[in-house]
Amino acid sequence: MSISVSSVRRKTYRLLFDPNTRSGRRFEGLCGLFALLSVLIIFVESGLGTQYHLTFDEWHLFVWLELFVTLVFTLEYFLRLFSWANPSKYVFSFWGIIDLATILPLYVMWLWPEISINYVFAWRAMRAIRVLRVLKLLRFMPSLRVFWKAIYSARHQLILFYSFIAIVMVVFGSLMYLIEGPTYGFTTLNASVYWAIVTVTTVGYGDITPHTPLGRIVASVLILIGYSVIAIPTGLITTHMSAAFQNRQQQRKCPKCNQTSHEHSARYCNHCGSELPE
What we know:
Layout: H1 2-16, H2 22-47, H3 61-83, H4 87-91, H5 94-111, H6 117-125, H7 132-138, H8 142-153, H9 155-179, H10 189-200, H11 213-251
């Protein structure tokens, strides 16, 4: 009996959740699409200004939709528990926690009806995180694999760069706290560092602004530094992606004439016409 159950678990996993199978990728994509549709339903419900939400005083359309979405996600969660080789590892994994969190709002509302509806709405909207599973599947696509490889190879430069930016934020925030002070809104170091982050990203909310000439000079320098926040990481990733694409092309070698530099999608050698290996 245990052997048959184990066989069913393996078949279920391979059919529904194995990213190396076509059916598994399709099912994950379908779940991601369903999660996205459920988030759109939440925004439509919020935009219409419905007051009943999940109180179930009356069984409106959105109540039925939320019930259906929750049941589907609950079924998916238990199917994953059943088919996973190590269920406890799945339960405490990142995706296991996300999956559990997305099915809880309805049950929480049933158990504690007095909970603020705004919290439940925000909680339900977190289902958008499930769409990231589709991106996880896309890593099996060649181009996206190159992108992830480029980010991974540039990780040291990116960590160094953003560490430097964090130090700059603290230094400039401290300067503005010293120059402007509480009189002009820089009441604490936290508020000053917040202003530095908003300024360096060129967002400029305007809730805190420098008023002294020296403070405006510091702000101008920080704004100029902000342009490099976008330019430097983009250049790093682009360079590593170009190198990764070149390496991939060189790896496609013709077994007959040893010609390299083939496109990844090429099926035949561009020199002798022989069929290329997968």
